[in-house]
Specification:
This protein has a domain at 264-378. Helices cover 43% and strands 11% of the residues. It is built from 14 helices and 13 strands. The protein has helices at 2-14, 24-34, 88-98, 116-128, 169-179, 200-211, 229-239, 246-264, 268-274, 280-307, 313-329, 342-365, 402-414, 435-447; strands spanning 42-47, 63-68, 76-82, 106-110, 134-138, 159-161, 191-193, 219-221, 242-243, 376-378, 381-384, 392-394, 422-424. The longest helix is centred in the middle third of the chain and has 28 residues, at 280-307. The chain is globular and about 70 Å long. 28% of the residues are buried.
Length: 471
């Protein structure tokens, strides 16, 4: 009977809504007691202003480290778990606590003995935290390598670190699919660290595949992953112009057809305002039909007041207003009309500006890599301009030789606006004074803002050039 009472009390507590302002130290301890945790981890609270809070401390006993934004215990900014195993029961308690922390921004779990099952629980907990954007999972070996669950298409995380987790080819394949496929892509992740794993050439190829159609990731670290020339070449090819696969071409055609269908059903005002920006084939098939309809509709509506010989004054005013609006909409079609007043011209021009602004906003919100305007057809292939959104790539400590450097050099030279600002290639299998590496250094020195003068300008050819160990 006691067990049943305890269980019901636990359920009643865990089913309650989380408090708006949580006292982590008190709530965590009390919930652990109710859940029957034998060894309750201690809670250490620090303020972010102190130097000590910036260091991960080691504790011989389980300890939950809390970093506060200010003196208020409800302003928890970061939660750290280092060096002790977190089981399902403790994760249930953490889920209750973390979801109540409105200011929580980072969750750090190092050597926490996670499993694929507990990682799924963490993924669910992360989705409940409104402002949590950074997750660090390091030193956690998962048999099924399900780390990709953190960076799915619906993930809101912007910064994920998966260092030292023994991620191999299978884990890299799943991560590559999470970054992007032909039909889906992660749109929020900005930084991803996969350093100190075992991705190898095969895993690097999967990551490169995920970078083809991903346009959110800015920083990628693949240092110390046993990557050779084959995997590095695939990563380099994605940065510059590359040929679309058959599957990508098919999906591109589907998107183009959907785009044409959407333009056909747009309002006539949009067609009139932006008809000069569209192909002649689209304009001739859609606008002519609308012209015929617009010429017929006014004649029908003009006959209606003749039937009602004595309309009421209020009704007559209501019917005249839409007629004036329609005449105003016709002004941009005949730009030489003298009867239109200046006020009407200003009204129409404002409407056109608003329409074009809305179109630009829609384009920015729905960037589709397969519809990139830089795509060209040449030699029987469809050539994509490449991923120009990735700004930083770290390939230090791998097995690259001068062979793969040639591919990087070619891709960097083929990049237009945007592209890499920082490329780290140090501690690989090529001499630091080889010509290809020096050329890459020269290109990156002109791009990397960290290698510019304080004035913000790059040193000219007369100044002493900077020598960098990494490009």
């Amino acid at each position: 009977m006691k067990k049943r009472v305890e269980k019901s009390s636990v359920d009643s507590v865990t089913d309650e809504e989380p408090p708006k302002t949580a006292d982590v130290e008190l709530d965590f301890t009390e919930l652990c007691k109710l859940m029957g945790v034998k060894e309750i981890p201690s809670v250490k609270i620090k303020q972010s202003t102190s130097l000590e809070s910036q260091m991960t401390t080691w504790s011989s006993k389980p300890c939950l480290q809390i970093e506060l934004e200010n003196e208020d215990h409800g302003s928890v900014k970061e939660v750290k778990i280092t060096g002790w195993r977190v089981d399902e029961v403790v994760l249930q308690v953490l889920s209750r606590i973390l979801s109540s922390l409105s200011n929580l921004q980072c969750l750090h779990m190092w050597c926490a003995g996670l499993t694929d099952s507990t990682l799924t629980s963490i993924r669910n907990t992360v989705s409940l935290c409104s402002n949590l954007r950074k997750v660090v999972l390091e030193g956690n070996l998962l048999p099924d390598q399900s780390y990709h669950l953190l960076i799915g298409e619906d993930s809101m995380l912007t910064d994920v670190s998966l260092r030292n987790n023994h991620i191999g080819e299978e884990g890299a394949r799943l991560i590559g699919l999470a970054l992007s496929t032909v039909h889906s892509a992660n749109k929020n992740l900005l930084s991803l660290s996969l350093a100190f794993n075992s991705i190898g050439d095969a895993g690097a190829i999967h990551i490169a595949q995920g970078l083809r159609l991903n346009r959110s990731l800015l920083c990628l670290s693949l240092s110390y992953n046993q990557i050779g020339d084959n995997g590095a070449a695939h990563l380099a090819e994605v940065l510059g112009p590359f040929a679309l696969t058959h599957e990508e071409i098919v999906e591109r055609r589907k998107l183009l057809i959907k785009g044409e269908e959407s333009t056909m059903v747009q309002p006539s005002l949009v067609n009139l305002a932006d008809s000069h920006e569209r192909p002649l084939s689209v304009r001739s098939s859609s606008s002519l039909d609308r012209l015929n309809k617009t010429t017929k509709n006014p004649t029908k509506k003009k006959d209606n007041p003749k039937k009602d010989e004595k309309p009421a004054p209020g009704q007559a005013a209501k019917k005249e207003e839409p007629m004036v609006a329609k005449k105003d909409n016709k002004v941009p079609r005949s730009q030489a009309g003298k009867s239109a007043s200046k006020d009407n011209n200003l009204l129409v021009s404002e409407q056109e500006v608003r329409i074009r602004q809305k179109r630009k906003e829609n384009v920015v919100e729905t960037v589709i890599p397969l519809l990139d305007p830089g795509i060209v057809h040449t030699g029987g292939k469809v050539i994509h301009p490449g991923n120009a959104c990735l700004t930083s790539m770290n390939l230090s400590g791998n097995k690259l030789t001068e062979q793969s450097l040639e591919v990087f050099l070619s891709s960097l030279e083929g990049q237009g606006e945007g592209g890499l600002l920082h490329l780290s290639l140090n501690r690989n299998h090529f001499p630091s004074d080889c010509d290809t590496f020096l050329k890459i250094q020269e290109i990156m020195s002109l791009r990397d803002p960290l290698k510019k003068n304080r004035s913000g300008q790059v040193e000219d050819e007369h100044g002493e050039p900077k020598t960098a160990n990494d490009a």
